[in-house]
Amino acid sequence: MVEVKYVQIMLDIKKKIEQGILKPGDMLQSEKALSEEYNLSRMTVRKGLTLLSERGYITSVPGKGYFVNKPATGKYVFSFDETEFIEKYVSSVKLQQANIVKANDILQKELEVDQNTKIIMLGHIFLREDKAIAYDVKYFPYTKGDPFIESQIGYATYPLKALQNSNAFSQQRQIRISTALSDEYIQKIMKLDKPHALMVIEQKYRDLKNNTLMWGKIHILQDYAFLEGESVF
């Protein structure tokens, strides 16, 4: 419940900034005043303000307080929604592989683990009318009892369900976008007769303590690849 409250603080202040109630250069109420207004601890209020700062809405000035930033111009945020992609283009999902693998150099770097960590690998083929249009592979450092990891394993044959049931406010996601030609491995998995142009979406999920929960890549045929962008504050 506390988590929802500090997110609500962030959303309330964000709305005031976007509506012009709070203008660039304005100083926010103090943490003490906000904690009294929302009947929450100052630590919880600080978490909400930190979210605003990370999103570029405010800046903390030590010894003075929090101030509204000037909107950036010419900057856009591009996003990829895996759930939306599945709902729009995918008619069925096939679990291609589920293995425990060794943490090689790449996995050690991306997941920030040592070589002795157990890594769960889940590979899914996304189909549209029996045609493979994407291949998704995810890697998780296995921690027994971790709700995020357990949900992914539990819904291994239906990843959309895990995405819908996950708590977005308890996770931070980073994405990296690139293009590539399918190599022999991808061509074999997706049953492609020749190299195809792909959009590759690399995703990394972290918890609020900055621990890496998952790293993976989804390879999408160019005819089904799309991005949406919007200007940022």
The main sheet comes to: 6 strands, antiparallel
* Distinct helical segment count: 8
Number of structural domains: 2
Structural class designation: alpha+beta
What is the 3D shape? elongated
Helix content: 25-40%
Q: Would you mind describing this structure in some detail?
A:
- The chain contains 8 helices and 10 strands.
- The strands form 3 sheets. It has a 6-stranded antiparallel sheet, sandwiched between helices.
- It is an alpha+beta fold.
- The longest helix is centred in the N-terminal third of the chain and has 17 residues.
- The two termini are 28 Å apart.
- The mean pLDDT is 84.
- The chain folds into 2 domains: 67 residues, Arc Repressor Mutant, subunit A (Orthogonal Bundle); 154 residues, 3-Layer(aba) Sandwich (Chorismate lyase).
- The radius of gyration is 21 Å and the shape is elongated.
- A hairpin with a 4-residue loop joins strand 8 and strand 9.
Give the tags.
6-stranded antiparallel sheet; 32% helix; Arc Repressor Mutant, subunit A; alpha+beta; 2 domains; two-stranded antiparallel sheet; Chorismate lyase; elongated; 8 helices; single chain; 233 residues; 34% strand
Structure in a nutshell:
The protein is of the alpha+beta class and 233 residues long.
Write the layout of secondary structure elements.
Blueprint (H helix, E strand, L loop, with lengths): L1 H17 L12 H8 L3 H13 L3 E4 L3 E4 L7 E4 L2 H8 L2 E10 L3 H7 L7 E10 L2 E11 L5 H8 L4 H7 L5 E11 L2 H7 L6 E11 L4 E10 L6 E4 L2
Helix pairs in contact: 1-3, 2-3
